[in-house]
Amino acid sequence: MSGTLTLNKITAQRGISVGEAAKKIADLGWNPSYVQEAMTFPTDYKITKAPKDPMKQVLRSYFPMQEEKDNRVYGALDAALRGDMFRNVEPRWVEWMKLFLAIIPFPEISAARSMAMVGRLAPGEDLRTGFTMQMVDEFRHSTIQMNLKKWYMENYIDPAGFDITEEAFGKCYATTIGRQFGEGFITGDAITSANIYLTVVAETAFTNTLFVAMPSEAARNGDYALPTVFLSVQSDESRHIGNGHSMLMSMLKEPDNHLLIERDLRYAFWQNHAIVDAAIGTFIEYGTTNRDKNKESYAEMWHRWIFEDYYRTYMLPLEKYGIKIHHDDVQTAWKRLTEKHYVHRVAQFFAVGWPVNFWRIEAQTDKDFEWFEHKYPGWYAQFGEFWKWYEKLSHRGQTNILFNSDVGYVYPHRCWSCLVPCLIREDIVTDEIDGQLYTFAHELDRWTVAQAFAGEYEGRPTPAMGRFSGRREWESCYDGWDLADAIKDLGFVRTDGRTLVPQPHLRFDEKEMWTLDDLRGHTLKSPLMALRAMSPADREAHLAEYRKGFTINPCN
Amino acid sequence: MTAVPIVSVGSGAAGAAVFPDSDSRRYRYFEPRSKRATHYEDVTVDVQPDPERYLLQDWIISFPNGKGAYTKDNTAALSSNWHAFRAPDQEWERTHYQRQSKIEGMVQSVIANGRKSGAPKAFNKAWVKILQNHLGAWKHVEFGLGTSLMQAQRYGYTQMINNATLTNSSYKLRLAQDITLYLAEIGMDIPGFDDTAGKRTWLEDKGWQGTREAVESIMGSADYLEQYFATNIVFEPLVGELFRSGFLMQVASSNGDFITPSVISAAEADYERNLANTIDLLHLLVTDNQHAAHNKNLFQGWVNKHVALANKAAVGLQPIWSQPHSKPVQYADARAQSVERIKKILGELGLVLPKE
Description:
The complex is a heterodimer of chains A (556) and B (356). Chain A has 556 residues and is mainly α.
């Protein structure tokens, strides 16, 4: 008797290899000859080369793998409850999850829908399985995130805000940014939206900050549920990145596509930076109570993941295919995050607008100030007094910070492109498009609306490109309204009919909680409508003053 | 650098303090179908918003024709309340993966055990040809319907409609792949088995062209609801169940094949769920207090169109019933059963089966 006897030798069966299985499955498609499929989601791109599926996974192994991932997630949620997670969780953190989890399920399910758009455009069937799995993945992400939110609502000290989540998503002055993100996946040119904006940029670059950096911060704040769910979500992203890259490689083969790829990479990178960095940067830097100076700041993580990983190893190699990469845009985004304090200005804006949101924002304290100054030199001089004001005005009986002229804050104009306000004041740009005046946070935002989202790009017709539409400036929806009436209309009132859902503090005490009556008597104004109503001379003077910025008065 | 320290209650747990809405532990922005929202409703309802629920600013990006991300005119059907539909199968991600994974486990066990016992070698020779050519062709039917539904799930006006369509697509595409891999695996045990023959049959065999035309007609529709309707209300009973239950499931065992019925059986259970979802949605539309007559008229038109195609498909497949060595079922009996089935389905919706 020679060799070793193993069970495997007795039970082993000849099977087909993964590569062969993927090849056979890719052969399921055919070119219809009786009725052609309608190209209902048009694109200006030409795709003639069939993209390859780099992952070669089939549904037979996919479904059990995902079920196993789910089992781990739901087991961990049960364990978190048994371990009394919520007794030790930091409310400052969970409050920001009311905003984050109101936003994210919509972009996720939009990504599922967008697979229909790319699925039909890609010639051949090789990548269809990849798109199918991504479709089901995104369905997973959307509903698993809704489940997490429900779980917070059921177990966290203050469920208000979670309990109105999807309604709030459609109405809030902050979630409008997330809607821009999600609608960007499913509207307009099918390749621009579902491939470049969603997969090549959002998923490949920015899910690292969304789904990896944020969970780390959650864990530092006693929240073990978010990392469990989101790292599981992130584990699906590598397949999506593969889908996007494969499709991109296929499009690169057509020289006619190069101009459009350059346009879309530029738009998508800039808008992802403007939106994702605004939101996730704020959650990570302002939602945490952990001020360990050895941990990376958001800017440092951005440098590692977006600058080093994405820009250097993904974007730059595209140059060898003849794609012009706008290096300046990446450098500008980096400078906005570091020298121009982009995230801090966003957090300040969210805090100023607390009466029209649906979560609690707590003031930053001494411990926070020290950390910010350490990580972002010069921070205290710009933001320290503001946060002291914020704490002072968090008590009922004070004039709320949005309307308190003692503070010195000047309410910003809204960017018509990314929908984040024009917070870096010196960069504000205006333009007239089709006879209407608009404000933009940066020249690239103006370019996005005026040149990228248009029927022609650099002399080339682009009939499939989308348009920015709707009542994009949130403030104009409530121009002339009393603040209390607007809050009531938004539905951000608790079920007693008077206490607000949002609060500028974490004091879980009815006596401390602001009501509609505390806010009545202030009129909301649309900065854009006011600007449009000005004479040209007044407008220039106003913009010159705006670009100078403002100074927060000392808080004594 | 000074600021006033902030004091909290020292716990983030439910019940640690009492204040307005400290006990508001249910989503309160939608009306559940029953007294209490189901888990499915909680994770599904209103995730896809619209200007009626609750887009204050309307859609903020549009297609070049001015339409927003989702519009009601993606189907010719009308509804006074698209938001009313809830899928009876209550599927969300966890239940979907559990079910799909169980099916994959079952299918793989059956195939592995069957092969281990040498079962494919004992299949009747005529039956082997049927599997090779006709089951091989059928996988393209499932794939075509799956990709068609994958397209359809982009268009519905609510999350509930689109998610039900998405899971339907996922089930179809799983079955297409299951059949593909099943045939490739038994092909390794059966000398001379050609697993590329199925596609040739699908594309070239005269008997299959009616089926291909019916499937391509569904794939080619630009109305998502017509795609969903034609798949589950017409094609499945008249062609899908006819071939799967009325032929494969009943004929296989008497020709020495106990594996194929197990592989196929999951599809019949899938269909029961998808049919329930479709009927519920369509029932809302044919009883709509404003648009019932319009919808019934529209649906009857879809019935007429797709039944004609499905009948042609079924007639084309008829000769297959004569090909096995053992013939425990007659085509006429299977056909009568599928006609009875569609009559019942249409009866639920107040629609009629056109005369042949």
